[in-house]
Structure formats: structure tokens, C-alpha cells
Amino acid sequence: MNILNDGLLMGQILGGGRRPDPLRALIASLYGDGQQGAMFIPKPPVLGQQVLFQDSDGTTPVTADGDPVGLMLDISGRGNHASQETSARRPIYRTDGSISWVAGDGIDDGLVVPDYFVRDADQFMSFAIRMGAPKLLRYLAGGDRDSYLGVILDEVAGQARLRPYVRTTSGTDASDGAGRIATGQIAIISLRWTRSTGLFECYLDGQLDSSFSATPADIAPRATTSQYGLLYRTGSVDQPLNADLIGAVMVSGTVDDTLRASAESYLSQLAGVTLP
Amino acid sequence: MTQTQYQLRTTICTPSAHMPDANQLALVLGESAHDDKTFAGLNYEDADGNLYAVCSTVAKPLFAEMAGQPLVAPAHAPDVDLESATRAQALLVIEDRTSGDPVPVQASPDHIAVILDTRFGEAQEHIASMGLTLVPSEEEL
Q1: Do B56 and A85 touch (CB under 8 A)?
Q2: A58, A224, B20, B115: which has the fewest Cβ within 10 Å?
Q3: Are B116 and B96 in contact (CB under 8 A)?
Q4: How many CB atoms lie within 10 A of CB B123?
Q5: Is A55 in CB contact (< 8 Å) with chain B?
Q6: What 3-state class would DSSP assign to A231?
Q7: Residue (of A198, A81, A143) closest to B140 by Cα position
Q8: Quick check: A3 pLDDT over 90?
């Protein structure tokens, strides 16, 4: 299913004589050379199109604060929409009038993204979240049995610590971050895997929080299912996160520091915060 | 912006032995043909170590009405096992916080504990109120 008219959207982004708005410019920068991935902004209308639906088939639009979200359209133009088929596991659309988000209850809520990962490419993800109640080993994003790359928010002394990981054909590597995220705190979290060097970096609010050197190798699944989770990890042990997802950028492709900063800046504006 | 029809939050705690029946009940009361996967993992335990599958979700007022009436197969699941769903329905013990005098409910292997709250109710608080804690998660990394 692809509710967005992908061709039209990319045409709108790349074509025309008008100066593109910041979101269109960011999408063009991240995906304009054919990069795979997804971008999620959980507002009912984005770029003039309805992107949130109550059901996973996309028949009932989200129109009110408190509606469940069964489908969140990918606005990158790649058609990698996030969905949840089981109604009780759908996160909730919320807004305070200035910012909007999908709220994960940390019990069973989560959204599933198709496997978009180009195995031999660099990888980048960036998220804007507001932290809920931290628990042990909760996943902001992850694949079944820690496939691909992702990030855990792990409770340490009542706050959340970032524990990013990458899974490649050479194995799984992970690190513990230095920073902490308190309940109610908004955070901009970015992950970057550089395929050619094996360098994995995790950023918190634009600052390097942890990094490690792994063996250069293709990113890989570890399980038979290849779906990917937001606000939880897909698979039988889903470990959902109690948090509000304000925005997400996911790219199979090279994202340099300038472009990373652009993505983080856009997400921070969505979240109503200023990065240091 | 309009007002949401989902004015309730309900948190449901199902003992391990009753998960199949509870999933059929979820299929009847839910909105999707995939709601037989509502209770998927035994991720919570009580003080005695009994295991439970828990879900928490927003719901329309119709949900509470249907939960107390004879069950009918919905359009999204015409082949639902109504006998199984009715067995689960008979086990429901509901703490209705939208009423004036809610009776607190605790998780137990003998019943399916339900907290029915306004949509601003907190799932994490419901879990704690029912006497449940997380089973430590396995770490794959």
C-alpha cells in the first residue's frame, strides 16, 4: 500500500522554481539521490497530506487529540509507512497545540516499519522524543533480536541511558552512553553507522554520547522476520518504550555532520527545543 | 480539531492460562482482524510469581457496554470463537474508575483484571495498581 503519491511528492520537493520550505529541502537532501529510508512527522496533515490514520489500512484519518494511530505515512517518498495491525497496540496521537506526537504507553504500543535497510550502505537515524517512565531495556527503535541497528533506553538510577547497537554480518556491537534522559525531558537522539570504517556513533542533543569501532561489514538481520519497530522492537520480546515520538528520520545512505545537524535541527524545532 | 471518540483507557491483565480465550474476547471487542494477537507475551508477574499478559489501550464508550453484553461476532472477525470469548468474558473483574465508587482490582490467576479509566489514565499506574511488576527482559545483545 502506498497512500502518498510518491512521484508527486518527490516532484514537489525537487522541482519548481519556488524556494523549497525547510522540510522539503531536508527531504531532498536526505533522499534526493535515491537513498532508502523513511521520515515520520506525527501530525495529521504534513506537506498538505493526511499522514496519520486510526487503522492500519488507512481508511479512518486521525482528526483528534487522543485518536489511536494505526498507520503513519512515510513522508520521505519511499513508501516505508509505519503501521500497527493490532488495535490495542496502537500508540495515541497527542497534541498540546504547539507540538504533536505519538505516545507509546510502554506496555504494548509500537509501530512496524518495513525492512528498508540497504545492507551495504551507511546508516543514519535521528529521533525526537519526550521520555516517559524509564524501565530496564526498552527499545526506541529496533529489529527482531537486535537486527540492523537501533537504540535501547535503559533505566539507570531513575533516568534513561542510551544503549545503541549495530548488528552486522560480523556480529553485534553495542555501547553505553554517558548522558542521561529524565522523565519528561525532550531528547534528540541520532545513530550513525559508517560501513567503510566500522565506526558507530550515537549523539544526544547534537553531542557525541558514545562511539565504538566495529568490523566494517554489511548491516544484517539476526532473525527470520525482517520488520523493524518504532517505540518497541519487533519480535516476541518487544520491550516497548514509554515515550512520546515527535519525529523520526531514517536513512540508508551517507549522512555527513552537516546533514546530521540539519536533521537534528529540524527535529528539535518540531519538539520546540533549541540544541546547545 | 474534533473531539476523539476514544474517551476511555483500559488496561487488561490476563493470567497465562487464559490467554487464548482472552485473545478471542479481544477479537470481539476490538477493531481489527488481527486483535487475536493482543495478548502476546507474559511480561508481567505478581508477588507470587504468577505470569500475566497485559494490554493497555484507548477505547470508545461502546467498548464498556459491549463487554457486559452477550457477545456477537463482529464484521472484522466473523469466524471468532464465541465460546472461547465468552469464557474469557465470564472471568472479567472490572475496576471502573469512570463510576463514582470504583472497587480496586488486583491481578490474580483466577480472573482477568480490568481497569477502566478516562482517556487520561496512565497505563503504568494501572499496572502498579494491579500489583504487577515487569519480568526482567532477556538481553540479546
Answers
A1: no
A2: A224
A3: yes
A4: 27
A5: yes
A6: coil
A7: A143
A8: no
- Whether the pLDDT of residue A214 is over 90: the answer is yes
Q: What is chain B's length? A: 141
CA–CA gap between residue B23 and residue B55 (Å, rounded): 11
Sketch the domain layout of chain B as residue ranges.
8-134
Out of A141-150, A220-229, B88-97, B99-108, pick the least confident.
A220-229
Contact at CB, B123 and A88, closer than 8 angstroms? no
> CA of A148: which chain B residue's CA is closest?
B141
Q: What is the pTM of this model?
A: 0.94
Non-local CB neighbours of A269 within 8 Å, separated by 6+ positions: none
pLDDT tens track for B36-49: 999 999 999 999 99
Q: Please report residues of B whose CB lies closer than 8 A to that of A236.
A: 40-41
How many Cα atoms occupy the beta-carbon half-sphere of A275 within 13 Å? Answer: 22
Helix (H, G, I), strand (E, B) or coil at B109: coil
Strands B112-118 and B92-96, sheet pairing: parallel
Q: Is A157 on the interface with B (CB under 8 A)?
A: no
For residue A218 the three cell numbers come to 554489511
Tell me if chain B has a CB within 8 Å of the CB of A105. Answer: yes
Half-sphere exposure of residue A140, counting CA atoms within 13 Å on the CB side? 37
pLDDT digits (tens, 9 = 90+) for A106-127: 999 999 999 999 999 999 999 9
Asked if A89 and B55 come within 8 Å (Cβ–Cβ), the reply is: yes
Give the domains, in start order, of chain A with CATH numbers: 35-45+89-271 (2.60.120.200)
For the stretch A16-35, pLDDT in tens is 456 678 999 999 999 999 99
Indicate yes or no: CB of A145 within 8 angstroms of CB of B140. Answer: yes
C-alpha cell at B45: 508477574
